[in-house]
Amino acid sequence: MRNVIVATILLSGVATAAEPTPVVPTFVEETKSSGISSTYKGEWVYMVGGGVATFDCNGDGYADMILSGGSNTAKFYRNTSKRGGSLKFKEQASGLELDKVIGTYPLDIDSDGIMDVVLLRVGENVVMRGKGNCKFENANKTWAFDGGDAWSTSFAATWEKGANWPTLAIGNYIDRKQEISPWGSCTDNWLHRPADQKFAPPVALKPSFCALSMLFTDWNKSGTPSLRVSNDREYYEGGQEQLWHIDAGKPPALYTEAEGWKPLKIWGMGIASNDLDGDGYPEYFLTSMADHKLQTLAAAPAATFKDIAFAKGVTVHRPTTGTDLRPSTGWHAQFEDVNNDGLEDLFVAKGNVDKMPDFAAKDPNNLLLQGADGKFVDVASKAGVASTYSSRGAAVVDFNNDGLLDLVVVNRNEKAQIWRNTSTNLGHWLELKLQQPATNRDGIGAWIEVKKGDKIMHREITSGGGHASGENGWWHFGLGDMTKTEARVIWPDGQIGEWQNVDGNKYYILERDKPAKIWVQK
Amino acid sequence: MRAFVKLLAIVIVSGLALTSASAATPQGVFTNWYKLALELVRHTATYTPPVASRSFAYMSIAAFEATASGPSSLKSLNDQIQGLPLAPKREAGKTYNEAVVMHSTMQTMVENLFSNTGPTGHHAMDAFSKKMASDVTLGAKKDVVKRSEKFGRKIADSILKWSMDDGGAVIQNMGFPTTYTLTKGPAHWVPTNTIGLQQNPLLPSWGKNRTFAMPDGATCKLPSPPDYSEDKNSEFYKQANEVVEAKKNLTPEQKAIAKFWSDDAMLTVTPPGHWISIAMQILEKQNADMDKTAEVLTKLSIAEADAFIGCWNGKFQYDLLRPITYIRRVMDPKWEPLLNTPPFPEYPSGHSTQSAAAALVMTEAFGDNFAFTDDTGTKDGLKPRSFKSFSAAAEEAGISRLYGGIHYRAAIENGLAQGRCIGAFATALKTRK
Q1: Sign, Cα dihedral of A308, A309, A311, A312
Q2: Is B172 among the domain residues?
Q3: How many separate domains does chain B show?
Q4: Which residues of B touch A3 (CB under 8 A)?
Q5: Residues B49, B142: one domain?
Q6: For residue B277, which of A147, A232, A467, B54 sits 20 to 30 Å off, Cα-Cα?
Q7: In angstroms, what separates the C-alpha of A275 from chain B's closest C-alpha?
Q8: Mutate to test the interface with B, among A10, A151, A183, A287 (most CBs of B within 10 A)
Q9: B21-43: per-residue pLDDT in tens?
Q10: How far is B48 from chain A (nearest CA, A)?
Q11: What is the pTM of this model?
């Protein structure tokens, strides 16, 4: 048995005992007491998906949420938690309660300051306009949004240069009507570009390779985000991961090998991004079956990425706890600093696709803490979040506004679970919200920079990625021992805001051309 | 029938468009199930090339025995293949529907051998099977259908039972052992990538599996590879340098050859599936009958399965390091091959061994200097390639591994020779009454 343990540790490349040990946060599951009771249910067409969107729709500063239901209807929950208290939610009718919902993403599409929601479905996708006070209405017709009829599984949004309306990318899976030979039947992904404060008919992103995650990201800090697409190799023929040029006024174009792009074929299921090494460029974590990938830009300005998952200890190719050591299956991934030490950590939702005997049936979710040496170590079991349900989408969010990040996870054919971060020994923190006038009020595409000693933490504000799940609200930074620091915003149009003094353990609104404003809870 | 033809028209494996093979004929049923199996190979996580070769062999033998048990010119192989049990007998004087027998046999085989595929594979198998069953039984007498289905299942069950103790029935961790002790010394294999799952080599015990037509995995012995040396004048260094020079001077044609035969696991039909695909393209073009179809695919798949056992026996006997390891250590730390290096020892080249074995069977079946065009990789964007003979194709498959930077010349040349030795056991099988 000793050999088995040793081999497992070596294979996963985790940090050795000689490295500084990050503080392990404590989570307590509060699913039953929280009022959340939602199951993402369904057979074949719901084997992927099952997401959650978190956003504030009643202006109280707390993150509300909508959970996908699959063949069940989606459920909306208003956050009724108190600061630092137990997590409490109240289910209420919102208009979002549609069936066949696979994924959910928040986005203030019409820039009216009220959050809208995009529902990805098996069948017609729907853009839901926020009417205020957590009420929504179908705006497909009003906004000329063609919801199509596909098996939609991924989403990303951006505001192209000069646009006053967002561009939405929607990724589609296989042709669900091809039951006998679904392989090779990946249907077209769509790019919904603006047209006079509405959406133009969608443009097909050809070729499409069964996208399970998409993300607009400015990978090279050019000022124009590109579209990363993570594709499921199970179904494509001649496919690979993709990076698209999405330049205003031009047709989309794939990055080519001549531009440095290297083919990668994985069971791509989720994208998470963060600048882990502080060089200003994001790293990308890609979930898959067995080995996961962590890519870093290898040779800027070329679009060449190098896999550093093994070196950083995040291949997470098999469970790191329990007795089921068969290969893992990863879905949602999200970088956040769950122990407030100033180093981004990584949550990965895991779960067997559907009784696949070659993959772990009890596949615990990972909570990978980053150490000072840049390597990660899985503490999910110790932290109390190693659920072995068949997890899919998730959100790592501060639900009770205490500066500690909580967690909600959507499980397939099991109830969604929610955990409160109850740690008492963590570092300081800072939570920021962006605001700009007129269009793109939440600053999608901006970069927030926060000083940490002689280093700078860079965070790109994105809409999309993960697995069927998205967040919009407070952007969280761990500060470690720092009680104060400076922060600034590089706005989507490239304007660089002033460095502003901010205190730790506080919420600030960073509004364009205005001083940072402390937000105080009512 | 029109509905069934439409159904089958969408089950098209690389380069294998359905032609005139009627699904109501046993050979139509057989080849269409085979095509579904080729799809499942690229979509089932355990299906690396050795595993695929094993399943092809059992599927083919089941179809062969089902055919030989009926009104056919084929004779059972039970006395020629190791441990193959006598096929169950048909009821004397009773009528059987050969298409139904074949459907039942292949359904049982495919559903069992691919029971570990994903939800979409199961979804496809269920839908395909239901539609196939409904069409082959159309207009047939109920008692004949029932008897034929039962007999087909019995044949398959007998083959599956026999398959269970051959050493290859259980594949864990996608074929990569969770514990393994690397051989010490600079000459030996070490992991060649940073994929966590692949830090131990694929299927280290496969060479000990029970063989089909040849006596055992060590029957076709290999000469030793050149002695490991870092001396620039040594044969080992020269062969490694040949790989470096080949990569440096690759022509577009050589790149195309490397990619054409790359046949990566999980992304293609694999090397044994590639040769099955070639055979099926030719059989369809010739409107081959059931006897010929079963004979060719059975001998071919046996040759390939034995080739993988023999080749793996050699791989873990010599446990030689890959070019990427040697070249980066001794010659150029930043060297990259054209193809991904497979995660197991280098010597001999598996594609060379199994291609030479396959070519021998194909030459016996279709003749010397049989010119053909292979479009197996079309749907993955690879252009068809034409060959003047099967041995020419096998030699190209072999040298493709040097162009791809994953094998030295010795592994290719000696692999081809080993394949010819192994293939001869398959061609020696007496298949006709």
Answers
A1: positive
A2: no
A3: 2
A4: 179
A5: yes
A6: A232
A7: 22
A8: A183
A9: 455 899 999 999 999 999 999 99
A10: 13
A11: 0.93
